[in-house]
Structure formats: structure tokens, C-alpha cells
Amino acid sequence: MTPLKRKQQTGATLLVALVLLAVVIVLTVTNMREVTLEGRMTANRAETQQLQLAAESALREAEKRYYDPGRVEEKLTEVTDNCRKSNVYTNQANRPCLITLSENLDLNLHQQYQENPLKFVANSAYLNNWTGDKTDKASDTTFVPWMPYRGTSPGQTSTLENKAYWNSVLIPSQGIGAEYGSWQEGAGVAYYLITAQADDRFALQSTIANLYLGINN
């Protein structure tokens, strides 16, 4: 009798299984990367929204310091005492923190400050290379170019997850609409660049205009 010959195994089934396994692994890894990336994007978006909320809150406090009609002279010139942590919001006439960017009027500096206020203040020797972190560590009697946000109601404490700060700068305009010589007496329209920031990472700005009839009005 002639013995039966066994059919030789080629290993094709094993090869196909390995290929399919490799495809499944690649798809799984790709999907995990997409999920991780989406998770990071969502977390970054949520963090950005929190920073924006903090900066907007500080922006409102800074703007509200200019609402009352009093203290005109302090709203036209820098008063060092107004940029101290002891300057808290009250029910009475409030004092704005108005800073100057240099000893002399320099429109280029104002442009640089407007484009990147965080970097400008941090790199400005004139402003003591200031940051919000330095404000947290400063005493109540230290001049702080970044005022801490503490709310727009007397005695209010911040409930924000992020620390926020603010300041204001008088935009060089020499009192638009004022008669000749009246600007020295505080008469005319003054424009302010209000800046707020959160955690030394996120900044917002707004512009407000105030009409003044004179220092004594």
C-alpha cells in the first residue's frame, strides 16, 4: 500500500493573523493618541476660559475705579500711593492705579505695552521688572504696577481659581476737545488703556474715555 502524503503547511493563516493583529494594534494606538489629544485640548480650553474669566473680572474692577467723578487730578497723573495693595475698593470715591511707562512720553513704548503688556512690565527696569507673583509677595506699602483683583464690592474677596491683576495707563492725547491751556487744568477728554491679567499668562485690555471739566469740577 502507498502511504498517504500529508499536505505541507505553508503558514498562510498565521501570517494573516499577525497582519490583522498589527492593524488592530495600530488602530488602537492611533485612537488612544486622538483621545489623549482631545483631552488635552479640552483641558487647555477650560484653563483658558478660567484665565479669561479672571482677567475680565479684574478688568471690570479697574474700569469701575474711573466711574465716579471725583479725584480728577489722581486720574491724570501717577500717584504712587494709589498703586499699593492697601488701596482697596470702597463705597466712596475710589482711586485708580495709573502707571507711567517711562520718565518721558514715548509713544513707541505705549505701542509695545499695548502689544504685549505682560512681557513689557516684566522686562521694564523702570517698572522694576514686575509680575503678578511679585505683587503677591509685596507689602501693603510697596508700589505694585500690577494691582491685585479683589472685587468690585467693598469687603469682597476673590473667589476665582486664578489670581488676577490690573492697572491703567493714560493714553497720550493732551485732552482731546479741550481749549488751549485747559488740559493743564484737567479739562478735556482723557483716554485710558485698562489692562488686566491672570497668573502672568493671559491678558485682556479695554479702552475707556472720560470727559473732565477741570480739576475743581
List the defining traits of the structure above.
217 residues, single chain, elongated, 4 helices, alpha+beta, 4 strands
Task: Describe the model.
Helix 2 packs across helix 3. A 4-stranded antiparallel β-sheet has the order 1-2-3-4. The protein is built from 4 helices and 4 strands. It is elongated, with a radius of gyration of 30 Å. By secondary structure, the chain is α+β, with helices and mostly antiparallel strands.
Write the topology of this structure.
Blueprint: H1 12-64, H2 107-115, H3 117-123, H4 132-137, E1 147-148, E2 164-176, E3 187-198, E4 202-213
Antiparallel strand pairs: 1-2, 2-3, 3-4
Helix pairs in contact: 2-3
Overview in brief:
With 217 residues, the protein is an alpha+beta fold. The protein has 4 helices and 4 strands; from the N terminus they run H-H-H-H-E-E-E-E.
- Mind telling me the C-alpha Rg? 30 Å
How many separate structural domains?
1
Could you list the spans in which at least 5 consecutive residues all have pLDDT below 50? none
Distance between the termini: 127 Å
